[in-house]
Amino acid sequence: KDKGLAPKSRNNYFTIAKEYSKYLAKKSESGVSRWILYKGVSKAEKISERKTLDIKQLQKLYKYAVRLNKNASAQKQRDGLIVQLIACRGLRTIEVTRLKKNDLKKGFIYILGKGKSKKIDLTLPSKLHRSIDKYSKTHDSDFLFPASNGGQLDTSLIRRMIKKAYKDALNISDDSYNAHGFRHTLTQILFNKGIPSDGLNG
Fold first, then answer.
1. Could you count the other beta carbons within 10 Å of the beta carbon of residue 45?
2. For 3-31, how does the pLDDT look when each residue is reduced to its tens digit (9 = 90+)?
3. Can you give the pTM of this predicted structure?
4. What DSSP letter does each residue of 131-168 carry, written as one string?
């Protein structure tokens, strides 16, 4: 539908959707997926590689994050919960940093997606929801996952903790494996099972 976008913007979104369909249909067996990264309507397309995990790798990484959350350190608990949240729901790093305590509801978490003006709700596994709720009561910040000073967490810190999780859990140091790659991993797993990927926000 036309939502007030300029013709060039609409065409750009159509192209992205088309290329994403190709990505789903032609993903290589090696796990390397080719994805179009757009730097603006008037700029040339840039091709980048993002590597995905198989379901066993994803489960192993998630279990690592659960163990991390059980650490006595409040920081490690926070990091473990963030890794779990990104791994099981494919949140963007910026979406994680924006989360406030009042975004956590019974069984749900409300996300303000990239470029969105309205929050959407995502279901959470019950154990993860309880763990996040318990952690939120350990600090006074309005942010769900605050920085050490109680303010908004920087996305670069989340990227570093994800990189560490890949290394510690799976012995992967390749920079092609990153936080955004979880979105592609989850989409591919759902696609392989014939399940619509509506659960991934945006």
1. 11
2. 555 655 666 666 666 565 555 555 444 44
3. 0.69
4. HHHHHHTT---SBSS--TTSSPPPHHHHHHHHHHHHHH
